[in-house]
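Recall the central idea of this unit: under ordinary conditions, the amino acid sequence of a chain determines the structure it adopts. In this exercise we apply that idea directly, starting from the sequence alone.
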Amino acid sequence: MALSPVLPVVTLDVAEDAAPLARALQAGGLRAVEITLRTPAALEAIRIIRAETPDLAVGAGTVLDAAQLDRAIDAGATFALAPGATADLLTAARRAQIPFIPGVATASEIMRGLELGLTHFKFFPAEQLGGAAGLKSLGAPLPGATFCPTGGITPESAPAYLRLANVACVGGSWIAPADLIRAHRWAEIEALAAAAARLAG
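Accordingly, the structure predicted from this sequence is:
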């Protein structure tokens, strides 16, 4: 979460797009990417990124159960994120050898995570949960929690999140939108990545 101010959240339909996408993100100055496990191409895309751009941290997103977490680790994911968390998934994550960032939406979910020894969370869906103001309100009562807010965040709204003491980075899908990936417009993605890398609170 500390590698870049913005974590690109990417859904890939074609695994062969993974390498040029990763190179574009890296050339733009970003050092991590989340590949969501929403398509059959996702695990192979993670394998390709790990092999072709080893300096780019590649994570698995939308991890829903322990089996998916295991498959993501086998594919080479160096971290994993989930939109929420179940007891089984949290148990598996505690055994895993990579960082796991569960999604939370309420103070109670954050408190349960803290009880389990977790300190980093995905605040999701951020904009629908009150945006930066909503996340700021959780900072005082829950100072031990650090967040990557994701969901509806734009280049315009990202700085407000990044100014918060309890935010390490934001997740954003605007850096590599599906239409640019399908059109292989890597230079445009690189430019969006460069702009995201310069974002600060």
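The chain has nine helices and nine strands.
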